[in-house]
Amino acid sequence: MSQPEAFGRYRVMRRLGSGSFATVWLAQDDLLNYPVAIKVLAENWAHQMDIQHRFLEEARILRQTDSTWLVAVHDVDVLPDGRPYMVMTYADQGSVADLIHRGQLPLDEALRLLTEIGQGITVLHNHGTIHRDIKPSNVLLQSSPVGQRVLVADLGFAKSIDEASGFTAAAGTPGYMSPEQSMPGGDLDVRSDVYSLGAVAYELITGRPPSRPPVRIAPGRIRPGLPPALDELILSALSVDRESRPADAKTFTDRVRAIRMSSDLPQDIPWWQRYRMPWPRAGALTAVCGLLALGLTTSLGVPGVSLSTVRYADQELRVDVPTAWAREFHTDQEARPAAAEAGAGPGLLVATGADEWHNTDVPSYGVYATVVPGAPDLRNVADTDPCPKPPEERMVDTPHWEGGLWEWPDCNGGAFTAAAVHPPGTPRTVYLEIRQPDYRPDLVDKIIAGVRLR
């Protein structure tokens, strides 16, 4: 197909790519001064009504789901020759396949991408849809004000879960589709997409797609040093027996997220080079000291955990946090109501996901700290029921700190600690919240020991 001048009001710039069923063009919406991608049904399928129906069904699904993690459809129209086209989000950074081809990804970056891909597939499953063609080239990347954004795309093979038992033809891409997809009448369900997520995970981690099923070589044999839990998760997702796979995309994604947020996740490169994000109120957060060397980790008394020091100038506060949690910094995080009533101002939050700090459905691990006037009891500054069960209580009595802790070893899929401590004889209290993927009282003690007030 030669390059057209325009599709309706959209001025065509260049071709982005083409496949068996469609061609995608980069175009400019001159009315809104915004680039868009336009997907047009291929000419040889113009009179195939079933293919046209599949094309329009993809647009309907994307429009109805309208998710941050999926390519958005802004408009649909028909050319004079009867071929439909859809106007979509333009992903200016190419695809995950392009990213993989440039070289091995840092482990944390690979897990971030995998988490966001899984969130997009979870949205589809919640909508009652199976994707059936998840692969790196069908996951696009777009620039955004907060960094790179993942967009799951190409739902040309997507089908309703309710119709899963009626599939009569194989669909998908060899190497990424589940064994049952290669058999007509395979009675598919969402676990077919879980297999594909496992295949994408394998390639993101190792740089190469998995072998034909059954897959027996764990990613850790290709990339040594991976957490055993990651090897186990990926191999279970790639199981020939779908009963052995994670139940759905959400289950798979939650486990990836927990592995990524673990405080002992291997670090490929320094965190300050990986995370480039807006720093709110940068003047208040005056310095983040360099990582403590790995050789110092053992001397810290917390094997396998590297700590970083964060200073909050407004409250003359210093906190040591696990490096793996130090992904977002906020110096204007509102205190819980009880602490605010006791006189605490906004505090420092260093966490894997600041926006999810109070969201029990999306785990976020890190440390929140603020200064409270006087030396109030923990009961006067902490919420009494952040977790379903009653807390375990213990006292803090060290040369530097005295006070108390409430600990919930099992709280919404992780562990939660609230602490109120003050230096002996000093009428200033530090209120802390610590969220962990697993209960580590030794780590809690080390974090408190690393807190300093000027």
From TrEMBL:
Keywords: ATP-binding, Kinase, Nucleotide-binding, Serine/threonine-protein kinase, Transferase. SMART domains: S_TKc. PROSITE patterns: PROTEIN_KINASE_ATP (PS00107), PROTEIN_KINASE_DOM (PS50011). Residues 10-259 form the Protein kinase domain. One of its GO terms (molecular function) is protein serine/threonine kinase activity. It comes from Nocardiopsis alba. Pfam families: Pkinase. Its EC number is 2.7.11.1. It is an enzyme of class 2 (transferase). Gene3D superfamilies: Phosphorylase Kinase, domain 1, Transferase(Phosphotransferase) domain 1. ATP binds at residue 39. This is non-specific serine/threonine protein kinase. Transmembrane segments: none annotated.
